[in-house]
Amino acid sequence: MTDIIEIAEQIRAARKQRKMTQAQLADVAGVSRRSVIELEAGRSPDPGFISVIRILRAVGLDLRITQATSGRPTYEDLLAEKELER
């Protein structure tokens, strides 16, 4: 599973590869410099989906949705687990 830390690392690497400063990235993405700094540092608990998408696009990255690997609980599994707790 890709988490926000992995996404942040990829954003930072892509930004540096393009020789962009955090301020330049923020300007191109239309977000605050603070948003870029906090996202790259992994300090933003909820960076906002739209902001992340804008930042990804500004450094030439894309977000892809794929089927989760097996082993993750289904809705039915979660319901059954909840019933057992009662």
TrEMBL record:
The record's section on InterPro entries has:
Cro/C1-type_HTH, Lambda_DNA-bd_dom_sf
| Domain HTH cro/C1-type positions | 11-66
Q: Name one Pfam family in it.
A: HTH_3
SMART domains, A to Z: HTH_XRE
Q: Which GO terms describe its molecular function?
A: DNA binding
Please report the name of this protein according to its UniProt entry.
Helix-turn-helix domain-containing protein
Q: Which organism is it from?
A: Devosia marina
Q: What are the top taxonomic ranks of the organism?
A: Bacteria, Pseudomonadati, Pseudomonadota, Alphaproteobacteria, Hyphomicrobiales
